[in-house]
Write a structure and sequence with these properties.
Elements: H1 16-27, H2 37-67, H3 71-85, H4 88-100, H5 107-114, H6 125-147, H7 156-164, H8 178-190, E1 197-201, E2 214-218, H9 230-233
Antiparallel strand pairs: 1-2
Helix pairs in contact: 1-2, 2-3, 2-8, 3-6, 4-7
């Protein structure tokens, strides 16, 4: 398990570690410039993507914990994952909008693999549907581990179709201090224990293609998320 949707990529198409540095740099912007609409949009989008990228790192570990029946680790990892994620005509139009980003219409098309085809992270979708799905999924796997049996089959289409027929109302305008929220996300990820640190060394000051280096990994307590300085990034 390395992705949340059938249409998601098997692997990242870019360096997510390098991308994560953008969040640190954006948080360093002078306070006088933080009300700029372009800055606020970029900060929100980068923070969302950094959180999404880091969450994806947990999927293989969650699967490994389940496959080895390590319930304590499974529940610790899934708790981290879930904690990060927290009128006739009008009815038809709303259903069309909701279903096209989830179940893709009827059961047949959804079960053929078209669900989540749009691969969106819209307001209300992550906290409303995605969090519900992951919570149900992990809860069932945890029950299976506890009872030492197979997990029950979940009718995912029924869950998604039920959400598509709802009429929740979500905010359309940004409120609150998003810089403070982005800082909170940054600091939470920095303190995340489910990660490793990498240390690389070489006998030369510059490393070219084919040059051997020594790489060590570890999880020293307390865990920290190291952000290279401008000089270190070269």
């Amino acid at each position: 398990m390395n992705k949340a949707a059938a249409w998601g990529p098997e692997a990242d198409h870019y360096d997510t570690t390098a991308f994560g540095l953008a969040l640190t740099e954006l948080l360093r912007v002078e306070p006088a410039l933080r009300d700029n609409s372009a800055y606020r949009n970029d900060l929100a989008d980068v923070t969302r993507q950094v959180l999404s990228n880091r969450s994806r790192m947990l999927l293989p570990r969650i699967k490994a914990a389940y496959d080895t029946a390590d319930r304590a680790r499974f529940e610790g990892l899934t708790g981290t994952w879930l904690g990060w994620m927290k009128q006739a005509e009008m009815d038809q139009l709303e259903y069309d909008t909701r279903s096209i980003i989830t179940s893709w219409g009827g059961r047949a098309s959804g079960e053929e693999g078209l669900h989540d085809y749009a691969n969106r992270e819209w307001s209300g979708l992550v906290g409303g549907l995605h969090l519900t799905r992951w919570t149900l999924y992990f809860r069932e796997l945890s029950r299976a581990l506890k009872e030492d049996g197979p997990p029950k089959t979940v009718d995912w289409f029924a869950l998604e179709d039920g959400w598509a027929h709802r009429h929740d109302r979500y905010p359309t305008k940004t409120t609150g201090d998003f810089h403070r929220l982005a800082r909170r996300v940054h600091d939470t990820l920095a303190a995340d224990p489910h990660q490793v640190t990498l240390t690389a060394s070489s006998s030369r000051s510059a490393v070219g293609q084919g040059t051997p280096v020594t790489v060590t990994t570890g999880s020293p307590p307390p865990p920290t998320w190291h952000w290279p300085s401008r000089r270190q990034r070269g």
